[in-house]
Amino acid sequence: MDAAFTAEQDEIRRTLRELLAERCGPDEVRSAVRTAHGYDETLWRQLAQDLGLPGLALAEEYGGAGCGPAELAVACEEAGRALLPSPLLATAALAAPLIAAVGTDAQRTALLPRIAAGELTATLALPGGSPATALGLIGDTSGGAWAGGGRSGGVQARPGPDGWRLYGEAAQVLDGHSAGLLLVAAHAGGFPRSRTLLFLVRSDTATGLARTRQTSLDETRPVARVELRDTTAELLGADDTVDVSGPAGALAAVGRTTAAVLAAEAVGAAASALDRTIEHVKAREQFGRAIGSFQAVKHRLADLYVRVQAARSAAYYAAWDPAAGGLALAQALEALRATTAEAVQLHGGIGFTWEHEAHLYVKRAAADELLFGPVHRLRDHAAEQAGLFTPGVRKPRVEVAV
């Protein structure tokens, strides 16, 4: 493994950081989240058309850049630094990889080029309410609980003469109020032979679709309640090729990469909160000297720096080896929580005011752990998968050269 960033990755980072520093400051973030879509549509078009962010990890045959998870992680780290409100995570990290993995040739050809061009945003609607469970980050997806239960729970799908119809609701859908395409997990087949499948719901043409934006802790991460009442839908993938176990395997594979991307985004937010705190303690004076000159403050900042750099290393290792995604995400979320909490403390009284940007980072830390954690369950599931606490499972021998 070569840990050095390529020239292309450095250029992505530099270009995106310069653009977001100009167009996505704290005031711009507050204005964007209060719009109907929850993000700056003009900025999103610029990010899509000029930088190609939605298509970074998509194949060139579908209009993408043909890059991998590492490039997407670099972009999301910079988005995290600015707390960029955008459909990038839901579209590029969740929906697009599932379409590429499960969809038919016709579906990929029709949808992925539009996603890569920024013309179509998409998201994943999960009736179970826990993205971390559905993505296989904190539990086994084979049981189907992530999809909202059995015969009467979650979303039900029924075939008809004019296609599939969906009934039910998903309570917390990331960017669900604005996405042009919904990938909905629904039960089909009836009890006891029910299986969970993924369906495409196009918001501009679907009937019986109601979407309500919810009040969320983190305004930069909007969620919505999606209600489906006899809603027309299209099965993702061909019916005769869909595995009987459903999309659990594809979701788990996408979840590992998404965890690495989320970890990089959390590292970006933590690094930005730390940088802002360092600038504050350099300028803020107490007893005739900058508070950053006090040894106790230096020690606290040094501890945070080590946390952030360790989390950054873990995030990019996970981008190279997605199997480590869950652990990297746990470390990044923990670093973000610690850094933002210290940022508020070290800013003093001003850090507790709503007008200061410190609270934006605190809310991102809390909301991310609620949506994709908690940290202890991420670590517990990773340990369980590795067989660390399973009787009879032989642990790998570790030899240390002295």
From TrEMBL:
* Protein's name in the database: Acyl-CoA dehydrogenase family protein
Please report which protein family the annotation says this sequence is part of: Belongs to the acyl-CoA dehydrogenase family.
Listed SUPFAM superfamilies: Acyl-CoA dehydrogenase C-terminal domain-like (SSF47203), Acyl-CoA dehydrogenase NM domain-like (SSF56645)
What positions belong to coiled-coil segments? Answer: none
- What domain of life? Bacteria
Record keyword Oxidoreductase present: yes
Would the keyword Phosphoprotein be found if you checked this record's keyword annotation?
A: no
Might you give the EC number(s) for this enzyme? Answer: 1.-.-.-
InterPro entries (alphabetical): Acyl-CoA_Oxase/DH_mid-dom_sf, AcylCo_DH-like_C, AcylCo_DH/oxidase_C, AcylCoA_DH/ox_N, AcylCoA_DH/ox_N_sf, AcylCoA_DH/oxidase_NM_dom_sf
Name one molecular function that GO assigns to this entry: oxidoreductase activity
Main enzyme class: oxidoreductase
Domain called Acyl-CoA dehydrogenase/oxidase C-terminal: residue spans: 260-385
Q: Which cofactor does it need?
A: FAD
Q: Which organism is it from?
A: Streptomyces yanii
